[in-house]
Specification:
By secondary structure, the chain is of the alpha+beta class. The protein has 2 domains: 49 residues, N-terminal domain of TfIIb; 70 residues, no CATH class. It is built from 3 helices and 7 strands. A 3-stranded antiparallel sheet has the order 1-2-3, with no helix packed on it. It has a two-stranded antiparallel ribbon with strand order 4-5. The longest helix is centred in the middle third of the chain and has 19 residues. It is flat.
Length: 133
């Protein structure tokens, strides 16, 4: 399999890099020389981006707390519970009961979509970003 061009997830800069695959496993990363942001460079996080992909500690499915214990669930069950709880909180507290934290591990486009979702769907302006703290 050829190298996979992707975007680094560690900050909002959006550096371009290649992930290297050997025998079905991602084994390394290198910068894209042609990418307009990274221009052939990566920070230390970008160079080690591949290390979390095959981590035994990485979550691979949603977990729902049932009787105080985190239990694996389906995506449909997790999303239904999330929607139900968001609606319940909104009905009980209005637009002040919900808040959203954006992530430095998302691209600028993903954070833009999150703020649109927060304002247009959740109907609250309570959104912040960890980089501002």
């Amino acid at each position: 399999m050829p190298d996979i061009l992707t975007t680094c997830v560690y900050c909002g800069c959006g550096c371009g890099l290649y992930l290297h695959e050997e025998n079905g496993r991602i084994t390394g990363s290198t910068p894209s020389r042609e990418h307009p942001i990274s221009r052939g460079n990566l920070c230390v996080k970008g160079w080690h981006l591949h290390e979390f992909i095959h981590s035994a500690e990485r979550l691979t499915q949603p977990l729902i707390r049932k009787n105080g214990v985190l239990t694996p669930s389906s995506w449909d069950e997790a999303l239904d519970l999330t929607a139900t709880e968001l609606l319940r909180i909104k009905e009980n507290t209005g637009d002040q009961g919900l808040g959203v934290m954006a992530s430095a591990k998302c691209t600028n486009e993903e954070n833009y979509l999150l703020q649109k979702f927060t304002r247009a769907v959740l109907k609250t302006n309570n959104i912040d970003h960890c980089a501002r703290l």
